[in-house]
Amino acid sequence: MKKHLIIFIIVFAISLTGCSNSFEPILLDSSKSVKNSAILNIQQACTSRNPYIRTYAMEGLVQIGDSTADNLIVRSLKDTTNAVRCAAAIAAGDRKITAAKDQLEKMIATNDIMTKLSAGYALEKLGDNRFLHWYDKALQSNIDRYAGQSCLLLGKLGKSGLRKNSIRQLRNVMEKPGQKPYIRLQAAEALARLGDSSIKERLLDFAGSGYADDRLLTVSALKLLGSPECYAMLSVLAYDDQLEVKLSALRALGTLAGKDDIAPAYQALEYQDPFNDASTTQRVKHLALLAIGSFGRNGDASIFKEYLNSKDDMLKLTAAIAVLEWDRIRATIVAN
Questions:
Q1: CB proximity list for 173: less than 8 A, separation 6 or greater
Q2: pLDDT, tens digit, for every residue of 255-271?
Q3: Residue 46: closest CA among 57, 60, 37, 36
């Protein structure tokens, strides 16, 4: 389980406990909304000394989606840590930031494969048509991070423009002899993102695996595909014996989770690893906060206020990102 769990941690950008520079607490008062405080926390996270936090902050900036966030993404393309630069490139592509083009061109000229893949994604999202075969070799690579990243980016690029053959390419990844389970699951998630309903039975098989890592990594794909059978399986996983699987499934269900189902997310905020592993405790609380954000419940504002001022910088950032989802869901609820 440990091997896949490490990958899961990277995907969710969870760091080890003990960031060396806490950002200053943000005081919440009647003149400052929880959402505004969350946005300030995300902005501050971009200057953390902890590269895991700077990497994860890119997700928050994409969700904020304003000019200040875009400027921080462009600035992060020059970060001293490669993982941050790659995350910033993907964020620049997601936001289609034209001001990022010059730096992205420099990034594709480097020798680092992960940097080239990420920068190529961003430039393609900006309308560049040079990258038809950009992912071909990496998809079939025996180096996990190259193949996994290529699956992720192909899924995000969709099926239009240059990407009419993406489904076939991803199926080939899944069927590669001796393919590693994580890469097969990454390809399955990308296929789900592309709406390939033929992957449904494979996802349900993965979700019923006896290995907790398989179940954990299948959750996002089930949500992306979104069929009634997928949501039924997510409801089953919401009662999984493995706490991290349970919390991830609850987040995927969001407002579809029943009132009686969501209690474990709130209980998990009190979790302490029985072996005093601080990173495990942090990871569980991270997943719990994200799940609570997906419920969109009005009474949860006090929880977010507490964690937006946490001494744990990763949980502070997690709370900020959870608030953005919470705010969006609440707006949808009010609109309906």
A1: 139, 140, 147, 151, 179, 183, 184, 187
A2: 999 999 999 999 999 99
A3: 57
Q: What's the Cα-to-Cα distance from 215 to each of 4, 23, 91, rounded to whole Å?
A: 11, 35, 27
| Cα(220)–Cα(3) distance, integer angstroms | 19
Residues in Cβ contact with 242 at an 8 Å cutoff, skipping those fewer than 6 apart: 212, 215, 216
177-193: average pLDDT: 96
pLDDT tens digit sequence for 27-77: 444 324 899 999 999 999 999 999 999 999 999 999 999 999 999 999 999
Residue position matching structure tokens 């992060």: 76
Sign of the alpha-carbon dihedral angle for 226, 152, 9, 214: positive
**Long-range contacts from 34-38, C-beta under 8 angstroms, 24+ separation:** 34/301, 34/304, 34/305, 34/308, 34/323, 34/327, 35/323, 35/324, 35/327, 37/305, 37/308, 37/320, 37/323, 38/304, 38/308, 38/319, 38/320, 38/321, 38/323, 38/324, 38/327
pTM: 0.90
Count of alpha carbons within 13 Å of 112, Cβ hemisphere only? 12
| Residue 209 in this model has a pLDDT that exceeds 50 | yes
Mean pLDDT of the chain: 91
Angle at 38 between CA 35 and CA 44, to 5 degrees: 145
State the Cα–Cα distance between residues 152 and 191, nearest whole angstrom. 9
